[in-house]
Every structure is written in structure tokens, then in C-alpha cells.
Write a structure and sequence with these properties.
With 380 residues, this protein is mainly beta. Helices cover 13% and strands 57% of the residues.
């Protein structure tokens, strides 16, 4: 009986050991098959010289910004609308330490203001008003960037032009005021996008940093002759002071015009001041704009209070393609941002639109108005 029990135990041990070996052999075969499939995939991609995009280091993010706007003036009846809902998608792929792709697409539903300067000569709208809904999409960025061994980067495609400070805020949620200053909303100043090539470099020199940009762009007014732009900027250690000079030259009609700009930003832990100036030099009048925007953080940096003074001389504005309507306008006001998280900005702002210097009244109609803007920005 004793020998029988010993034989049974020995037999069971052998069976368990065989099963274990079988499991190990099965797992080994599966691993070899997976390695073979991976080798076949790599060989196929190497032969095609193109790797799968999703096999690169891929980053996806973006933002959403809804807004509600109210307007009223002496000759503008009260109006309110959900003026814009914008979704931005940012994506990037890093192929190596020196090569990457960057892209951004903006899309949204808008109720744009028709006759925004309140020109009573407008053939359809005798005063500013919210128009029919408009859906649009725009590729703002799409470029391949390569970092060379000497520290220079060269990019090809399209992106935000490095002209001044505000134009380089690549996400709408970064603006303290929704839409940013007038310098961005006046089409006769600089081109907001570079297209073609962009050469740039940043160099550290101990207590400060120096940067240089050179790029090409295409004006909508003249697509046959490319423009050239450049920027030189300086920043101290810690980024408390940032200042730069910007330049663009392009052909308008039959003349080569120049656009110059200067910007400065001062900030510390709870204070920020931004100021910019831009002027378009041309044979006749010279459109120009400037703004000053100080702000302060309070309540543990969760609330930002701001005020601003913003001026634009728009000598090339037209109510219709054949109806010139030059104007000069101050925007000034104040507002508050609530920053409950690092990815959220809630805004409330009020602005006075004050037309001056002979253009405040047209055919007895006052252009002035007050706007109240409520908006939010959520990054993801």
C-alpha cells in the first residue's frame, strides 16, 4: 500500500510537471509569433520608407471657448447674442530629437456683427447688428520643424507670425480680453500668419536670453508677391522683462510697404503689464495702433483684475468693397478673469468704443457703443 501511494504521488508530479512545461512552451510559441509579426511590420515599413504616424510620439490637446456679447449705443439699439463658440485642436508628432510636426485647427459657430463700425451708409444694415450664423474652420498652424546642430530651427508650412506679443498667443484661452487687442483685429496692419518658411533661434547669454526670427508670408491683398518678416527679442532671466522689435515688408498695389512694431511685457508673481505699438508705412496715410493692458492677480492668484487703453487709426477700412470708411477709435474698459484651475479661464469684461477725431458721427449717426462680454476658456 505504501509503495502504491508513492507511485501515485510520483505519477501526479510528473503530470503536473508536463502540464507546466506545455504551458511554458505555448507561451514561448506565442511570443515568437508576436516577434515575427513585429519583424514583418518593421521590414514592410522600412521598405516603404514611411512609418506609421501613430507609432511616433503623438500629442493631442486643444481648447473650447464660448462667449456671450451685449452691445448698446446712442444709435445702436440693445442687442445680445451667443456670439461665438470656438473649438481648437492642437496636435504634434515628434519623429526624433530634431524633427517634429505641429498643427492647429480652429472651428466654430459664429454670429458675427454686421456693420461693426455703425456706418449708416451700409446698404443692408443701417446700424451694427448680429448677423446670420456662420460656421467656419481654419488651419492656423501646420508645419514641420527641424532643429539644426548649430541651434537654428527651420520650419516649413504655416504658423502664427512672430510679430509682437499678442499675435503669438497660440490659444484663444490665453487672452485676458476675449479676442485680444485691436492690433489683432485691424486687417491693414501686419499679417498674422507666416507661410512658406520660418527660421528662428534662441540663445542664452547668462542673465538674459536673445531670440531672432525670419519668415515669409503671403498677404491676402497680393498673393503673387511673398512678403518677408523678422523679429528680434530680448528676455531677462525669469522672464520678468520681455521686449522685442518686429518688421514686415510686402507689396501693396504697386508699392513695397513696411510695417514696424514694438512690444514690451513686464511681469512678476502677481502683476502683468503688456504694451504694443504697430504702424503701417505707406505712400498716403499710415494706419497704426497701440494698447496698454495692466493686470493684477489676487485671492491666491485665482482672480485677475485688468484694465486697458486701446487705440486704432484705420485709414483703409471699408464698409463695403467700394465704400471707404476710415475711422479712429479708442477702446477702454476693465474686467475680471476667474482662474479656478490651471486649465480654465472665466471672463467678464466691459469696453467703451469711443470714435474720435472727426469720425465719431456719420450722417448724424453716432458710432459709439458699449460692449459687455462674458466668455470662458477651457483647455484640455
Amino acid at each position: 500500500m505504501k509503495f502504491l501511494l508513492i507511485g501515485v504521488v510520483f505519477f501526479l508530479a510528473q503530470a503536473v510537471n508536463a502540464d507546466s512545461q506545455m504551458d511554458q512552451l505555448t507561451k514561448r510559441i506565442e511570443m515568437l509569433e508576436n516577434n515575427q509579426q513585429e519583424l514583418i511590420l518593421q521590414t514592410s515599413e522600412e521598405n516603404s520608407k514611411v512609418n506609421s504616424f501613430l507609432r511616433s510620439n503623438f500629442t493631442l490637446g486643444g481648447f473650447f471657448e464660448p462667449s456671450y456679447t451685449l452691445i448698446q449705443g446712442p444709435d445702436t439699439s440693445f442687442k445680445a447674442a451667443s456670439s461665438a463658440n470656438v473649438l481648437g485642436l492642437n496636435f504634434a508628432a515628434e519623429y526624433s530629437n530634431h524633427l517634429r510636426f505641429v498643427g492647429q485647427v480652429l472651428t466654430g459657430l459664429f454670429f458675427p456683427i454686421q456693420n461693426p463700425q455703425n456706418d449708416p451708409r451700409h446698404p443692408t444694415f443701417q446700424q451694427r447688428t448680429f448677423g446670420a450664423p456662420f460656421y467656419g474652420a481654419l488651419l492656423t498652424q501646420g508645419y514641420l520643424d527641424y532643429e539644426m546642430k548649430n541651434g537654428w530651427n527651420v520650419s516649413g508650412g504655416q504658423g502664427y507670425a512672430p510679430f509682437g506679443y499678442a499675435a503669438q498667443q497660440r490659444e484663444l484661452v490665453l487672452f485676458i480680453r476675449r479676442g485680444g487687442p485691436q492690433i489683432l483685429r485691424t486687417s491693414e496692419l501686419f499679417s498674422p500668419l507666416w507661410s512658406g518658411f520660418h527660421l528662428h533661434k534662441t540663445e542664452d547669454y547668462g542673465a538674459y536670453r536673445l531670440g531672432f526670427n525670419a519668415y515669409s508670408f503671403t498677404r491676402f491683398e497680393n498673393a503673387n508677391t511673398p512678403g518677408i518678416g523678422a523679429r528680434v527679442w530680448w528676455e531677462n532671466t525669469g522672464g520678468k522683462i520681455l521686449t522685442g522689435l518686429s518688421f514686415q515688408t510686402a507689396k501693396f498695389n504697386s508699392n513695397m510697404d513696411q510695417i514696424f512694431g514694438y512690444d514690451v511685457r513686464l511681469k512678476n508673481e502677481d502683476y502683468l503689464l503688456t504694451a504694443e505699438y504697430a504702424i503701417h508705412l505707406r505712400p498716403a496715410s499710415n494706419p497704426w495702433s497701440f494698447y496698454v493692458e495692466p493686470s493684477i492677480l489676487i485671492f491666491k492668484e485665482e482672480v485677475l483684475l485688468y484694465t486697458f487703453l486701446d487705440f486704432t487709426q484705420s485709414s483703409l477700412n471699408k464698409t463695403t468693397p467700394v465704400l471707404p470708411d476710415p475711422y479712429q477709435k479708442y477702446e477702454y474698459g476693465l474686467g475680471v478673469n476667474w482662474l479656478p484651475t490651471s486649465y480654465t479661464r472665466l471672463r467678464l469684461g466691459v469696453a467703451m468704443n469711443d470714435y474720435v477725431y472727426g469720425n465719431a458721427v456719420v450722417l448724424g449717426k453716432n458710432r459709439d457703443c458699449v460692449t459687455l462680454d462674458i466668455s470662458a476658456g477651457v483647455a484640455f
